[in-house]
UniProtKB/TrEMBL annotation:
<feature type="domain" description="Nicotinate/nicotinamide phosphoribosyltransferase">
    <location>
        <begin position="153"/>
        <end position="322"/>
    </location>
</feature>
<keyword id="KW-0597">Phosphoprotein</keyword>
<keyword id="KW-0328">Glycosyltransferase</keyword>
<dbReference type="GO" id="GO:0005829">
    <property type="term" value="C:cytosol"/>
</dbReference>
<feature type="domain" description="Nicotinate phosphoribosyltransferase N-terminal">
    <location>
        <begin position="8"/>
        <end position="132"/>
    </location>
</feature>
<comment type="similarity">
    <text>Belongs to the NAPRTase family.</text>
</comment>
<protein>
    <recommendedName>
        <fullName>Nicotinate phosphoribosyltransferase</fullName>
        <ecNumber>6.3.4.21</ecNumber>
    </recommendedName>
</protein>
<dbReference type="InterPro" id="IPR041525">
    <property type="entry name" value="N/Namide_PRibTrfase"/>
</dbReference>
<dbReference type="InterPro" id="IPR040727">
    <property type="entry name" value="NAPRTase_N"/>
</dbReference>
<dbReference type="GO" id="GO:0034355">
    <property type="term" value="P:NAD+ biosynthetic process via the salvage pathway"/>
</dbReference>
<dbReference type="InterPro" id="IPR007229">
    <property type="entry name" value="Nic_PRibTrfase-Fam"/>
</dbReference>
<comment type="pathway">
    <text>Cofactor biosynthesis; NAD(+) biosynthesis; nicotinate D-ribonucleotide from nicotinate: step 1/1.</text>
</comment>
<comment type="function">
    <text>Catalyzes the first step in the biosynthesis of NAD from nicotinic acid, the ATP-dependent synthesis of beta-nicotinate D-ribonucleotide from nicotinate and 5-phospho-D-ribose 1-phosphate.</text>
</comment>
<keyword id="KW-0436">Ligase</keyword>
<keyword id="KW-0662">Pyridine nucleotide biosynthesis</keyword>
<dbReference type="Pfam" id="PF04095">
    <property type="entry name" value="NAPRTase"/>
</dbReference>
<keyword id="KW-0808">Transferase</keyword>
Length: 446
């Protein structure tokens, strides 16, 4: 694997702010930062949280190496005193937020990071780069699996994005409901089901389509899936069944009018006695294409470009904002921006979802001081959405690794079932439930 340092996956100003606050004495002020988005992508009804496990894995390695420190010193990015401080850096704060697989809406406090200003500010870019991309892919995957109506979707997007984002996309896609990935590194790192057989070049390199099919079946067995649209689909299906017999696992169609072709291929397979042979379709699919294929006899889908680009929304526009900090008196004080169109809600947050008739009806965000939030009593039909991921530097490992991904996938399925059915509509509209924000106590200082 490429050797890299999570501690350098930052913007320069995070280190220059660290340097300045260490010099002026504010670096050790206790702070609370919050991750949220002001709006969903236009027309989307909900978002899906993904990336927490990757953040926790990176956080455990977030310590500048000697090479990192030498680079910072050579470029005069920070002072020698800050270099010495960084030699002993490790995150000792706490992080809580929404579980992976949870739905989020505008102003949902997806993540809250508490610690000193110095240790929290360095995490901004890492957190946002992970959550903005992973949540965008998981959100797209959720829309696609909903449109697929139970037919499995597979990630085939690795060749359509950066090599490292391809790995992240595979993981996020599983959280959104996908069943496997073509990316072997993702499968290796996260113990995910790997899928894939052959491309058109495999057929073209052989002297005949029959030779290619015989070679693939000899190597992979009759349960393999043969690609049948290199030349003539009807002839290819006939040859595929002749070579593989009625036990042939599947055929894949990668071009043309997929619905019409799937119907013809299904009828042809049945006529040839291959009634158990599955049909997979690929070719620039998105949630709208999947919805249009609902009545077609398709058994599974391979999705690439639209998955790894968030199906038109490659970021969730999440931001990382300071909402509470220790003042000169040592007392924690809520703070907020009042910038035009960028105002923030002061104070740390609680987050709940209320239900009626077992359906979610509203997202509730309650802001205030630590004391005020401890005294707050939520109504019985409000479900708490926040969990603890890091407690004073101790990472809860149940939210990392393979099982965490599968738990997130199951959790997302449960969450989606609790949202009003309009959440699964592909028509543009407002968030499926509103968000109500309540601020306890006095207004924030600036």
């Amino acid at each position: 694997m490429v050797d890299y340092s999570p501690a350098m996956m930052t913007d320069m100003y995070e280190y220059t702010m660290l340097d300045a606050t260490l010099q002026d004495g504010t670096a050790n002020r206790r702070c609370v930062f919050e991750v949220f988005t002001r709006h969903l992508p236009e027309g989307r009804r909900y978002g899906v949280v993904a990336g927490t496990g990757r953040l926790l894995e990176a956080l455990s390695e977030f310590q500048p190496s000697q090479a990192d420190l030498q680079f910072l010193a050579d470029r005069h990015i920070v002072s020698p005193e800050t270099i010495k401080w960084l030699e002993h850096y490790s995150f000792s704060g706490s992080i809580r937020g929404y579980r992976e697989g949870e739905a989020f809406f505008p102003n949902s406090p997806i993540l809250q990071v508490e610690g000193t200003f110095a240790e929290c500010t360095l995490l901004e870019t890492l957190i946002l780069s992970i959550f903005n991309y992973d949540s965008a892919v998981a959100s797209a995957a959720s829309r696609m699996t909903s449109a697929a109506k139970g037919r499995p979707c597979m990630d085939m997007g690795g060749r359509r994005t950066n090599e490292w984002s391809a790995v992240a996309a595979s993981r996020a896609a599983i959280i959104g409901g996908f069943k496997g990935t073509a990316n072997l590194l993702a499968a290796q790192l996260y113990d995910l089901p790997a899928i894939g057989t052959a491309a058109h070049c495999f057929t073209l390199v052989h002297d005949s389509e029959r030779d290619a099919f015989e070679s693939q079946i000899h190597a992979l067995g009759k349960n393999t899936t043969l690609l049948v649209d290199t030349y003539n689909i009807e002839e290819a299906v006939k040859t595929a069944v002749a070579v593989g017999g009625p036990e042939l696992g599947g055929v894949r169609i990668d071009s043309g009018d997929l619905a019409a072709l799937a119907q013809r291929v299904r009828n042809q397979l049945d006529a040839l006695g291959a009634t158990g042979t599955k049909i997979t379709v690929t070719n620039d699919l998105d949630e709208y294409a999947l919805a249009s294929l609902q009545t077609a006899p398709v058994d599974s889908y391979g999705v690439g470009t639209q998955l790894v680009t968030g199906s038109g929304a490659p970021t969730c526009a999440m931001v990382y904002k300071l909402t509470e900090r220790e003042g000169a008196s040592g007392v924690m004080e809520p703070v907020a921006k009042k910038s035009t169109n960028k105002a923030t809600v002061p104070g740390r947050k609680l987050a709940y979802r209320s239900f009626q008739y077992n359906l979610a009806e509203c997202e509730h965000v309650v802001a205030g001081s630590e004391t005020e939030l401890e005294a707050f009593g939520a109504p019985e039909n409000w479900h708490d959405l926040l969990v603890d991921f890091v407690d004073h530097g101790q990472i809860d490992t149940q939210y990392t690794g393979h099982q965490a991904i599968m738990d997130a996938q199951a959790h997302h399925a449960d969450v989606l079932a609790e949202l009003p059915i309009t959440a699964q509509s592909l028509m543009r509209g407002d968030p499926v439930i509103p968000t109500e924000t309540t601020v306890l106590g006095p207004e924030a200082t600036i």
